[in-house]
Design a protein that fits this description.
Oligomer: homotetramer
Number of strands of chain A: 0
Largest interface: A-B, 47 and 47 residues
Chain lengths: 198, 198, 198, 198
DNA sequence: CATGAATGAGGCTTCATTCAT
DNA sequence: AATGAATGAAGCCTCATTCAT
């Protein structure tokens, strides 16, 4: 790519650069191990601007880790059978962005020494995954089943972005989809989207 | 007796106390958020002794997370069908220990900002879980299937010890075992241990 | 009309607004605790204009505290017996101005960490009070007597604008005048203005 | 004096040195204009020790400015006529300590941009001076009379330690006592301690 | 051997000030 | 002429670590 020599005097661009750099760092090493100077250096600007634009490192983190708050189109009106698959894509979205994009889930996990992050992680997991899965279940142990499937998405994320286990790191969404759909059907008690078998 | 009232620990006991305190703290909040003074206070000794006995916080962490690595009896000679269930117990062991015991996986995850931890996490996951699962598979995508099941164990651990999702946090191993055995059978292509269905 | 809705101040008005805002802030919390952005916000203009118009915060302060220094009509030609009373009015003038006016003495006191302020405070005290009192005295210890009376005016000012002691804060000049005239007469060795006794 | 080459590894001595240095600086230029590094340099120790021994700059200030809290022997049982004189000594105590001692009143005044300091100043003034004066008065305007005399002590302090007016700065307590006793008698309506006239 | 005083590096944050638009 | 983006210095504070005692 053609890196511009210096992006200057552009509020929106600087803010975005800081946010991107923060997302990348936070996703890579978490909150504590990231210094505001690191972020600023990556963004190519002065560290003071973080406070100008975000108020504090903490608020920058909140904003950077809340990308997942994109409403997660929970299936407008197509068959609910495809909802699990769509959430799998959400949890693995990192691929499309490239590494620099930053997976909010990873960032939150790596920053979980902070109590606020644990809370945010918990509520975000519920809103994004558990709640949606739960609505599909019509069996005993609804909550447990939903959380078990959510846990799997968490684990897939960890394996890929933190532990870097080889097979899962190399796999793309389509490689995993058939397995996921089978297990989702089993846990939630729903029929799989098609009749495909891996 | 002539010994002063304040108990005078011998070298081994002090070392062990420090190690235990370190393990507990690292499991709770990870490397960065744990200070040597925290550990020393928990152990009831002076912080300097950490450097005397371990050289540095870093080496204390290495040793503490080594200790966390127990050989995991990989199924001595009983039916291999029970191996997944045994590894589920390993991943959920936290309950029996109480919080202070320290879940190796949790500690490593919370400290994953450190590159060494990632490597250790990766190799430990492989040795403990992936390798064992892999040996049970006799289908294409052996590695991927093994890692997918491992990812689930990771996720269950995270959901319980970090995110604290309600249903999974309250569940005990026996609540989860039936689901796990079904999914394991599905992913690994092995018959479930009994004919039980949840 | 073609002028944009946001009022476009002319140079003089902006300068005056900054000066007024500066005077008020400096009087309230002194030099160190006042930031240029505070002043600019109060004046409703951009902080840069402070540097454009005054060069630096320091020079703004100098000018603002110069403005505070009004010539103090040292008794044109009426009976000198009324001079102390007039100076009491000067020292308590804050009431008439309202808070925003800025009491020179208070501003200088609160900014006395700066050496320049101390000098200015010293010379201003001399010019305004000590010198005038001294000329009334025809006894030994002229200077000391004049300074003792000046010190009282300082203390009254501090009690009212900084320490906020209740009775003195609520009192108006007329409540204090009789006491002051008695003490002034005693210290300066002059007859009191009238024969009034409190 | 024979400055010790280096006072080392002595908790009490280091703490005392820091406190003395802090008192001096705070008395000289107030809270804002004093940096912890300044204090530490004056004390000849590392700035970190301020946090080790006092917790924060703020708590160091509180401790340093509370010296006046020495109970101020409010006249055990001798004639109350001597109380004003004793309080004059308190307000001028700086002489005995030398400049380095630090007058808490001065420190509080120079730090009055901080709201906490204003409160502390107010309550300390009341406890030390106003309340004691008030008890001597048996006339109307008790509170006002007491505050007026207190204001004078404040002003004398300011004139000597901040404004440095020449005559008052050179004077010692005995030079001022006769004037003070006369004025105190006048304001409080009490007979002067002896029959002395200046 | 053990205690704890001392240190230096680095973290977050705010401020006055300059420079491009 | 005026706005506000950018900067560098400095401030408070915490941490791991070393050094006397």
């Amino acid at each position: 790519m053609t890196t511009p020599p210096k992006r200057k005097r552009d509020r929106a661009a600087t803010r975005a650069a800081l946010l991107a750099a923060a997302r990348a760092r936070f996703t890579l090493v978490g909150y504590d191990a990231t210094s505001v100077r690191d972020i600023a250096r990556d963004a190519g600007v002065d560290a003071t601007l973080i406070f100008r634009y975000f108020g504090s490192k903490e608020r920058l983190f909140e904003e950077a880790s809340q990308l997942l708050r994109e409403p997660v189109d929970t299936g407008t009106d197509d068959a609910p059978a495809y909802l699990p698959t769509r959430l799998l894509h959400t949890a693995m979205r990192q691929d499309e962005d490239g590494t620099a994009g930053g997976q909010p889930l990873t960032a939150l996990l790596l920053s979980s020494s902070r109590p606020q992050c644990r809370e945010q992680l918990n509520s975000q997991l519920y809103d994004t995954y558990v709640r949606n899965f739960e609505e599909l279940v019509d069996l005993p142990d609804r909550e447990l089943r939903a959380e078990l499937l959510t846990a799997w998405l968490i684990g897939i994320n960890v394996a890929r972005s933190i532990a870097h286990t080889p097979a899962l790191s190399d796999a793309c969404v389509n490689d995993i989809t058939p397995y996921f759909e089978q297990v989702a059907a089993l846990l939630l008690g729903t029929p799989p989207p098609g009749e495909s078998s891996p």
